[in-house]
Amino acid sequence: MRSLKKYIGVVIFILVSCSVFAQKEGVSWQKLNESSNRLQGKLTGRVYYISGEANRSFLYPNDWVKGDILLTNGDKFENLELRYEADKDELIVYNANNFTLFFVEKELVKSFTFKNGDKIQKFIKLSNVRDSARDNYFEELYCGARSFLAFHYIFEHKVSPYVDRNGVMRDSEYLQQTNYFMYSEKDGMRKMDINRRSILNAFPDRKKEIKKLFRKNHLLIQNEEAMIFAFRLLEENNIIN
Questions:
Q1: 23-27, 135-139, 160-164, 167-171: which range is least confident on average?
Q2: Residue 22's pLDDT is what?
């Protein structure tokens, strides 16, 4: 009898925890089913059951935000609840009509935007930077003759074994990482680092002009914002086209 009470207590604790988690995320977990993975008959995908691991480490941004999705056929869906799953490189949408989360079918998507407060982040779908036909979502930090893109991904970092807060033994931590690229339809992808040398190496015939331009504008490149400004300067001064 004592063990039965203990078992019932554990079940109740798990149910309450799930309820609290769902309330915190602003998502109702009722009425989840395999047939509800579509929105207005056009936006489709497979149902996604979020895990605690994914919510802590894989999802971007930190909470659900309003956003728009533009499909390859020109259809647009506005003011949806969206997040990006960096581990699987998938877009997640919350269907408030059926209280369901699902991965949007990637082949349907052309781009999507997050409206995160005053900040708007745009992601576009492009061919993989590797030798593959697979498409990936890239955050478009600067759009121009040469675009500046960010690819968010998950890196598994091995650590000394430890017991997490759920009592599970682990030897890995998952960290969100970002790779940066310069892109044009003509030349495709080129990996970039957040520094001046990376830009100079991308345009070896224009190094003197670029150095002079950066000195004139007192530009030190140490973060994303500086790289975005650098791309804008290069385009405005006809160094990249």
A1: 23-27
A2: 38
Task: Dig out the tokens for 66 from the structure.
Answer: 């309003």
Complete DSSP assignment for 145-206: SSEEEEEEEEEEEEEEEEE-TTS-EEEEEEEEEEEEEEEETTTEEEEE-SSHHHHHHH-GGG
* Biggest CA-to-CA distance, the chain: 82
**Cβ atoms within 10 Å of 107's Cβ, excluding its own:** 9
Pick the closest to residue 236 from 208, 217, 222, 218 (CA basis).
217
User: Which tops the pLDDT comparison, 15 or 78?
Assistant: 78
- Placement of tokens 């017991």 in the chain: 163
Show Cβ contacts of residue 183 under 8 Å, excluding neighbours closer than 6 positions: 126, 138, 146, 147, 148, 149, 189, 190
Could you give the CA distance from residue 113 to residue 65 in angstroms, rounded to a whole number? 10
- Give the pLDDT confidence of 74-121 residue by residue, as tens digits: 999 899 999 898 888 999 888 777 677 888 889 889 999 999 878 899
Would you list the domain boundaries of the chain? 1-29, 31-192, 194-241
Query: Can you point out the beta strands (E) in the chain?
Result: 38-39, 43-47, 59-71, 76-85, 90-95, 100-104, 109-116, 119-127, 135-142, 147-163, 169-184, 188-192
Distance (Å, whole) CA 80 – CA 92: 10
First to last CA, the chain: 77
User: Beta strands 76-85 and 59-71: pairing type?
Assistant: antiparallel
Is residue 118 within a helix (H) or strand (E), and if so which, with residue range?
Answer: none
What is the average pLDDT value for the chain, to the nearest integer? 78
Q: Are strands 169-184 and 147-163 parallel, antiparallel or unpaired?
A: antiparallel
pTM score of the predicted model? 0.74
